[in-house]
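Reading group handout, session on sequence-to-structure problems. Before we discuss, look at one worked example. The prompt was deliberately terse, the way you'd type it at a terminal:

> structure Putative calcium-binding protein CML17

The input record follows.
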Amino acid sequence: MSSGSLKNGDGQQKEEIFQLWEMFRSFDKDKDGSLTHMELTSLICSFGIKPTKGQLKYFLEKTDSDQNGRVRFKDLVSVVAPNYNGTQPYTEYQLWRLFHRVFDRDEDGVVSDEDLMYTMEMLGHKLSKEEINDLMEEADTDGDGVINFQEFSVAMISAAFQSTIWGIN
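And the output record:
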């Protein structure tokens, strides 16, 4: 199967579908053109997405159209493509502004747990210290105790992608 056989919109979406196809193929260990539920779970996790068991079960049910325990690429695309249009949810400039003007309140170039707690509260989401720690741990991939712009961007795009895929508003 080639990615050129997919019916897509613009060239950017075709490129993203092609990249998904390349990743799909790399996770298809037996090269039979389909992924087991375990392989699909690994593919999802490779995007930095950490679905709950319920979300994963829902996604597997949607993508395994013939309920045989295997997911074909066209089934994956039929679930993902209608919800994800192949464009980034935010531009780099929007992320930069959000990072610097909203989250990095002391303007030191990073988001600390205090910055995050304050910002979330101002946005109407009062979180416990444990919830803030969980968010920090998830976003702080280099383990330095703060979130830099790159980590922030990845976390925001991942969160937007997850909400699109899982139907969370």
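Points for discussion. First: The chain has two domains: 7-83, 92-166. Second: The helical segments are 11-27, 37-46, 53-63, 73-83, 92-103, 113-122, 129-139, 149-166.
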